[in-house]
Amino acid sequence: MTTPVLTPEERHHIETGSWYAKLSPALRQDILNRTIIRRYPDGVQVATRGAPPVDWVGVASGAVRVSSVSMSGKQITLTYVEPGTWFGDIALFDGLPRTHDATTHGPTTLLIVRKHDFFDLLSRHAELAEALLRLNCRRMRLMFASFEDLNTKPLAARLAKQVLTLARAYGVPHGEETRIGLQLAQEDLAQLVGASRQRVNQELKGFEREGAVRVEPTRLVVLSRDKLLAISER
Known about the structure:
Layout: H1 8-15, H2 25-33, E1 36-40, E2 45-47, E3 55-61, E4 64-69, E5 75-81, E6 86-87, H3 89-94, E7 101-104, E8 108-114, H4 115-124, H5 126-152, H6 155-170, E9 171-174, E10 177-180, H7 186-193, H8 197-209, E11 213-216, E12 219-222, H9 225-232
Antiparallel strand pairs: 1-8, 2-7, 3-6, 3-8, 4-5, 4-7, 9-10, 10-12, 11-12
Helix pairs in contact: 4-5, 6-7, 6-8, 6-9, 7-8
Protein backbone atom coordinates (compact mmCIF):
# COMPACT_ATOMS: atom_id res chain seq x y z
CA MET A 1 0.00 0.00 0.00
CA THR A 2 1.34 3.44 -0.94
CA THR A 3 2.10 5.73 1.99
CA PRO A 4 0.13 8.99 1.66
CA VAL A 5 2.13 12.15 1.13
CA LEU A 6 1.09 15.77 1.48
CA THR A 7 0.13 17.66 -1.64
CA PRO A 8 1.99 20.93 -2.27
CA GLU A 9 -1.09 22.86 -1.09
CA GLU A 10 -1.39 20.80 2.10
CA ARG A 11 2.31 21.22 2.86
CA HIS A 12 1.98 24.97 2.27
CA HIS A 13 -0.89 25.16 4.78
CA ILE A 14 1.19 23.38 7.42
CA GLU A 15 4.45 25.22 6.80
CA THR A 16 2.81 28.66 6.79
CA GLY A 17 0.71 28.08 9.91
CA SER A 18 1.36 31.03 12.22
CA TRP A 19 2.52 28.80 15.12
CA TYR A 20 4.34 26.04 13.24
CA ALA A 21 6.23 28.46 10.98
CA LYS A 22 8.04 29.93 14.01
CA LEU A 23 9.56 26.58 15.03
CA SER A 24 13.14 25.71 14.14
CA PRO A 25 13.67 23.76 10.89
CA ALA A 26 14.94 20.74 12.87
CA LEU A 27 11.83 20.61 15.06
CA ARG A 28 9.48 21.10 12.11
CA GLN A 29 11.11 18.22 10.26
CA ASP A 30 11.06 15.96 13.33
CA ILE A 31 7.32 16.61 13.75
CA LEU A 32 6.65 15.79 10.10
CA ASN A 33 8.74 12.63 10.36
CA ARG A 34 6.40 11.35 13.05
CA THR A 35 3.07 12.24 11.47
CA ILE A 36 0.54 9.85 10.00
CA ILE A 37 -1.39 11.40 7.13
CA ARG A 38 -5.11 10.68 7.10
CA ARG A 39 -7.63 11.93 4.53
CA TYR A 40 -11.28 11.94 5.58
CA PRO A 41 -14.58 12.75 3.88
CA ASP A 42 -17.07 15.16 5.41
CA GLY A 43 -18.67 14.26 8.72
CA VAL A 44 -16.13 11.85 10.24
CA GLN A 45 -15.79 12.17 14.02
CA VAL A 46 -12.07 12.21 14.77
CA ALA A 47 -12.32 12.91 18.51
CA THR A 48 -15.08 12.21 21.02
CA ARG A 49 -15.94 14.06 24.19
CA GLY A 50 -15.02 11.92 27.20
CA ALA A 51 -12.59 9.73 25.29
CA PRO A 52 -8.98 9.41 26.46
CA PRO A 53 -6.41 11.54 24.60
CA VAL A 54 -4.42 9.50 22.10
CA ASP A 55 -2.97 11.95 19.58
CA TRP A 56 -1.96 15.46 18.58
CA VAL A 57 -3.43 16.66 15.30
CA GLY A 58 -2.58 19.22 12.63
CA VAL A 59 -5.06 20.28 9.95
CA ALA A 60 -3.45 20.26 6.49
CA SER A 61 -6.63 20.98 4.50
CA GLY A 62 -10.36 21.28 5.06
CA ALA A 63 -11.64 22.02 8.56
CA VAL A 64 -12.51 20.35 11.85
CA ARG A 65 -15.72 21.37 13.59
CA VAL A 66 -15.37 21.44 17.38
CA SER A 67 -18.72 21.01 19.09
CA SER A 68 -20.56 20.04 22.24
CA VAL A 69 -24.08 18.85 23.06
CA SER A 70 -26.51 21.09 24.94
CA MET A 71 -28.74 19.95 27.78
CA SER A 72 -31.55 19.52 25.24
CA GLY A 73 -29.36 17.26 23.11
CA LYS A 74 -28.67 19.85 20.40
CA GLN A 75 -25.24 19.88 18.77
CA ILE A 76 -23.58 23.28 19.31
CA THR A 77 -20.65 24.39 17.13
CA LEU A 78 -17.95 26.24 19.07
CA THR A 79 -15.30 26.78 16.39
CA TYR A 80 -13.78 25.46 13.18
CA VAL A 81 -10.12 24.45 13.25
CA GLU A 82 -8.53 25.85 10.11
CA PRO A 83 -5.64 24.57 7.97
CA GLY A 84 -2.24 25.13 9.54
CA THR A 85 -3.62 24.76 13.08
CA TRP A 86 -2.74 22.04 15.61
CA PHE A 87 -4.99 20.77 18.41
CA GLY A 88 -5.26 18.02 21.02
CA ASP A 89 -2.18 18.94 23.04
CA ILE A 90 -4.13 20.18 26.09
CA ALA A 91 -5.68 16.77 26.79
CA LEU A 92 -2.32 15.09 26.24
CA PHE A 93 -0.68 17.42 28.76
CA ASP A 94 -3.21 17.00 31.57
CA GLY A 95 -4.19 13.41 30.74
CA LEU A 96 -7.89 14.15 31.14
CA PRO A 97 -10.62 13.07 28.69
CA ARG A 98 -11.38 15.08 25.57
CA THR A 99 -13.66 18.01 26.34
CA HIS A 100 -15.42 18.27 22.94
CA ASP A 101 -16.33 16.35 19.83
CA ALA A 102 -14.28 17.01 16.69
CA THR A 103 -15.74 16.25 13.26
CA THR A 104 -14.42 16.84 9.76
CA HIS A 105 -16.20 19.60 7.86
CA GLY A 106 -15.82 18.86 4.18
CA PRO A 107 -12.98 16.69 2.81
CA THR A 108 -10.17 17.09 5.33
CA THR A 109 -6.53 16.03 5.59
CA LEU A 110 -5.05 15.60 9.07
CA LEU A 111 -1.53 15.04 10.35
CA ILE A 112 -1.69 12.74 13.36
CA VAL A 113 1.08 12.43 15.93
CA ARG A 114 0.52 9.54 18.33
CA LYS A 115 0.74 10.13 22.07
CA HIS A 116 4.09 8.37 22.57
CA ASP A 117 5.63 10.30 19.67
CA PHE A 118 4.27 13.57 21.06
CA PHE A 119 6.00 13.03 24.40
CA ASP A 120 9.17 11.83 22.70
CA LEU A 121 9.22 15.09 20.72
CA LEU A 122 8.85 17.01 23.98
CA SER A 123 11.75 15.11 25.55
CA ARG A 124 13.99 15.79 22.55
CA HIS A 125 13.04 19.42 21.91
CA ALA A 126 12.77 21.84 24.85
CA GLU A 127 11.70 24.36 22.20
CA LEU A 128 8.43 22.48 21.64
CA ALA A 129 7.28 22.80 25.26
CA GLU A 130 7.98 26.54 25.20
CA ALA A 131 6.20 26.94 21.86
CA LEU A 132 3.13 25.04 23.07
CA LEU A 133 3.06 27.16 26.22
CA ARG A 134 2.98 30.31 24.07
CA LEU A 135 0.31 28.73 21.87
CA ASN A 136 -1.93 28.01 24.84
CA CYS A 137 -1.40 31.51 26.20
CA ARG A 138 -2.63 32.82 22.85
CA ARG A 139 -5.63 30.50 22.99
CA MET A 140 -6.52 31.85 26.42
CA ARG A 141 -6.23 35.46 25.24
CA LEU A 142 -8.50 34.72 22.30
CA MET A 143 -10.97 32.95 24.57
CA PHE A 144 -11.14 35.92 26.97
CA ALA A 145 -11.50 38.30 24.02
CA SER A 146 -14.43 36.22 22.77
CA PHE A 147 -16.06 36.33 26.21
CA GLU A 148 -15.59 40.10 26.28
CA ASP A 149 -17.10 40.50 22.81
CA LEU A 150 -20.08 38.34 23.75
CA ASN A 151 -20.80 40.50 26.78
CA THR A 152 -19.99 43.95 25.44
CA LYS A 153 -20.44 44.06 21.65
CA PRO A 154 -23.74 44.10 19.73
CA LEU A 155 -24.50 41.16 17.47
CA ALA A 156 -23.66 43.07 14.27
CA ALA A 157 -20.13 43.76 15.51
CA ARG A 158 -19.58 40.16 16.63
CA LEU A 159 -20.91 38.82 13.35
CA ALA A 160 -18.76 41.14 11.25
CA LYS A 161 -15.69 40.12 13.25
CA GLN A 162 -16.52 36.43 12.73
CA VAL A 163 -16.98 36.89 8.98
CA LEU A 164 -13.59 38.64 8.80
CA THR A 165 -12.03 35.72 10.68
CA LEU A 166 -13.57 33.21 8.28
CA ALA A 167 -12.41 35.29 5.30
CA ARG A 168 -8.85 35.31 6.65
CA ALA A 169 -8.83 31.54 7.21
CA TYR A 170 -10.85 30.33 4.23
CA GLY A 171 -11.01 33.27 1.83
CA VAL A 172 -10.51 32.68 -1.90
CA PRO A 173 -9.92 35.97 -3.77
CA HIS A 174 -12.00 36.64 -6.89
CA GLY A 175 -10.97 40.04 -8.17
CA GLU A 176 -11.99 42.54 -5.49
CA GLU A 177 -14.26 39.98 -3.80
CA THR A 178 -13.31 37.25 -1.33
CA ARG A 179 -15.38 34.08 -1.38
CA ILE A 180 -15.34 32.17 1.93
CA GLY A 181 -14.54 28.59 0.96
CA LEU A 182 -15.95 27.04 4.13
CA GLN A 183 -19.56 25.99 3.55
CA LEU A 184 -21.66 27.17 6.48
CA ALA A 185 -25.40 27.22 7.04
CA GLN A 186 -26.70 30.32 8.80
CA GLU A 187 -27.44 28.10 11.81
CA ASP A 188 -23.74 27.22 12.02
CA LEU A 189 -22.79 30.89 11.81
CA ALA A 190 -25.36 31.76 14.46
CA GLN A 191 -23.83 29.24 16.87
CA LEU A 192 -20.39 30.78 16.41
CA VAL A 193 -21.65 34.21 17.54
CA GLY A 194 -24.11 33.06 20.20
CA ALA A 195 -27.33 34.17 18.50
CA SER A 196 -30.40 32.76 16.77
CA ARG A 197 -30.41 31.98 13.06
CA GLN A 198 -33.20 34.52 12.53
CA ARG A 199 -31.20 37.37 14.08
CA VAL A 200 -28.08 36.44 12.10
CA ASN A 201 -30.16 36.40 8.92
CA GLN A 202 -31.41 39.91 9.69
CA GLU A 203 -27.89 41.21 10.33
CA LEU A 204 -26.54 39.63 7.12
CA LYS A 205 -29.28 41.35 5.13
CA GLY A 206 -28.11 44.60 6.71
CA PHE A 207 -24.51 43.81 5.70
CA GLU A 208 -25.76 43.23 2.14
CA ARG A 209 -27.53 46.59 2.08
CA GLU A 210 -24.31 48.28 3.20
CA GLY A 211 -22.37 46.54 0.42
CA ALA A 212 -20.17 44.60 2.84
CA VAL A 213 -21.13 41.03 1.86
CA ARG A 214 -23.20 38.99 -0.55
CA VAL A 215 -25.08 36.00 0.83
CA GLU A 216 -25.19 32.89 -1.35
CA PRO A 217 -26.58 29.45 -0.47
CA THR A 218 -24.14 28.00 2.15
CA ARG A 219 -21.56 30.65 1.15
CA LEU A 220 -20.61 34.18 2.06
CA VAL A 221 -18.78 36.53 -0.27
CA VAL A 222 -16.95 39.47 1.27
CA LEU A 223 -17.35 42.55 -0.92
CA SER A 224 -15.61 45.06 1.38
CA ARG A 225 -13.31 44.16 4.25
CA ASP A 226 -13.17 47.85 5.20
CA LYS A 227 -16.94 48.02 5.63
CA LEU A 228 -16.94 44.83 7.71
CA LEU A 229 -14.12 46.20 9.84
CA ALA A 230 -16.08 49.41 10.42
CA ILE A 231 -19.14 47.39 11.50
CA SER A 232 -17.00 45.24 13.84
CA GLU A 233 -15.76 48.38 15.62
CA ARG A 234 -19.13 49.99 16.20
